[in-house]
Amino acid sequence: QVQLVESGGGLVQPGGSLRLSCEASRLTIGFYAMRWYRQAPGKERLVIATITSDGSRTNYEDSVKGRFTISRDNTKNTVYLQMNSLKSDDTAVYYCSAAHEQIRGLFYWGQGTQVTVSS
Questions:
Q1: Are 81 and 65 spatial neighbours (Cβ–Cβ below 8 Å)?
Q2: Is residue 67 packed enough to be buried (19+ CB in 10 Å), middle (13-18) or exposed (0-12)?
């Protein structure tokens, strides 16, 4: 079955950096817009970064603009989230998703990876 597998999470000090990866299997991400979401304890899951299927356009939630960068390598079937200048408020479970750009409703979630920002 289709899988999106996130990796790269962990514990980092405030001001530090992490790079998350989301690798897809049994799915060609070149047809999909990819997104990163996060969900902090007790809060709803929110989209924080989006990249179109060809990588030509990106969009960011205000709280991560200028600190996070979403990118993709369609040849590796992988999307990335580079996170810099991390803050304690960035602590959350991070999820990637794939949404087919032509087929409405064709959508997949990853299982999530924990990011904890703490000294």
A1: no
A2: middle
